[in-house]
Amino acid sequence: MATALQNLSTYDSSGFIDISEKxxxxxxxxxxxxLTDTLSxxxxxxxxxxxxxxxxxxxxxxxxxxxxxxxxxxxxxxEEVDAVICLGVVIKGDTKHDDYICHAxxxxxxxVGLKYNKPVIFGxxxxxxxxxxxxxxxxxxxxxxxxxxxxAIQMLGF
Length: 158
Ligand code: DLZ
Fold this sequence. Notes:
Blueprint: E1 24-29, H1 33-49, E2 57-62, H2 68-76, E3 83-91, H3 97-116, E4 120-127, H4 130-135, E5 137-139, E6 142-143, H5 144-156
Parallel strand pairs: 1-2, 1-3, 3-4
Antiparallel strand pairs: 5-6
The structure holds ligand DLZ.
Pathway: Cofactor biosynthesis; riboflavin biosynthesis; riboflavin from 2-hydroxy-3-oxobutyl phosphate and 5-amino-6-(D-ribitylamino)uracil: step 1/2
Binding site for 5-amino-6-(D-ribitylamino)uracil: 31, 65-67, 89-91, 122
Active site: 97
């Protein structure tokens, strides 16, 4: 993931497999929608840039990041879906909601990926501030949506 030392939005695609026949499910949380739309656009453009066909990328929205797990499962259960990319933004507030949501999503997506034996990518931006979130949605730390798409492509080649 993007850190001060490593920004995966800059990546080496030389080892990517042919994804022209692969089918991708995108699950996008509507909470913090301006941000998640930017992540989604980054993921979508990255998939197309590397050969995915527009008709093979299925974008679905869920209300908030907590629902990413069920959204992922509903897509992953279809045999024709090769990889699922989940995108959301959780910003720390006055309560511990961020902890509960992030842990549930991390655990849930791990479970779905293992259950269906296919890449289910954790594209959740988890930050302390709105500014830090924008830094990771097209700002100085890249676009986590791009990184999530790259992770999906890499895992399909595993
Ligand atoms: C309730 C809630 C809160 C407080 N914050 C966020 C957030 O920062 N990011 C996000 O994606 N979703 C948030 N939600 C909504 C929950 O993810 C979920 O949609 C609701 O609790 C309904 O299950």
